[in-house]
Amino acid sequence: ITKSIKRSQKKIEIEHHKQGPTDIYLLIDCSGSMAGDRLRNVKNAVTALVTNIVDMNICRIGILAFNSDLHDISDLTNDASKIITKVKSISPGGGTMANQAFDKAYKKLSASDNSRQKAVIMLTDGKIFDEAATAQTAVKMRNANMRVITIGTADANMKYLKKISSSINNVSDTYPVNDLSNLAKTFRTIINTLKQG
């Protein structure tokens, strides 16, 4: 309850801030358990993100999907229609190996303009198989001043997701989402937190 109150207060405070130039990588779990409505809801939320939530005039978004392999869906771009088209190609299957996606996002963001804010938003619906390696890369990201934001469904290891995420004002950059049909609302909350810089 206390965290919810803090998040609500924080949301009200930062609604008045303007989004600065930002590069965001979305890391989307596309393992077998994401089949059906789960992945469909994620795709709908990504469409909402780039059309109604983020100012694509100043923000760029890249998308990586991960299961047993890494799937490079879209490089950083401010072209919303390209992202909407590309995200449709994501299909479910395999296990949950996140570190390749984290490592690729780290390298891509490291190469982008340092005047831009940088963030990674990772969504998963289960236990990540390569937890140790992923945690090490998350530390590198945070040390490089990149925000590491995690979203997990009820089946995810929320304790682990909190461990690897950033923390702002003692509030973890980790968001539980039991129903992925509500994911767009979570994206809006996350983007609002990025407005504080």
Explain this structure to me?
With 197 residues, the chain is an alpha/beta fold. The chain has helices spanning 2-14, 37-53, 80-87, 99-110, 131-143, 158-164, 183-194; strands at 22-29, 59-66, 70-77, 117-124, 147-152, 167-168, 171-172, 174-176. It has a six-stranded mixed β-sheet, sandwiched between helices. Helix 5 links the parallel strand 4 (117-124) and strand 5 (147-152). The radius of gyration is 15 Å and the shape is globular.
Give the end-to-end Cα distance, rounded to a whole number of Å.
25 Å
Report the portion of residues in β strands: 15-25%
The rounded Rg comes to 15 Å
Strand order of the largest sheet: 3-2-1-4-5-8
How would the global form be characterised? globular
Mean residue pLDDT? 91
Number of helices: 7
Please outline the helices and strands.
Layout: H1 2-14, E1 22-29, H2 37-53, E2 59-66, E3 70-77, H3 80-87, H4 99-110, E4 117-124, H5 131-143, E5 147-152, H6 158-164, E6 167-168, E7 171-172, E8 174-176, H7 183-194
Parallel strand pairs: 1-2, 1-4, 4-5, 5-8
Antiparallel strand pairs: 2-3, 6-7
Quick tags:
six-stranded mixed β-sheet, globular, two-stranded antiparallel sheet, 197 residues, 23% strand, alpha/beta, 7 helices
Write a concise synopsis of the structure shown.
With 197 residues, the chain is of the alpha/beta class. The protein has seven helices and eight strands. Helix 2 (37-53) runs antiparallel to helix 3 and helix 2 (37-53) crosses helix 7.
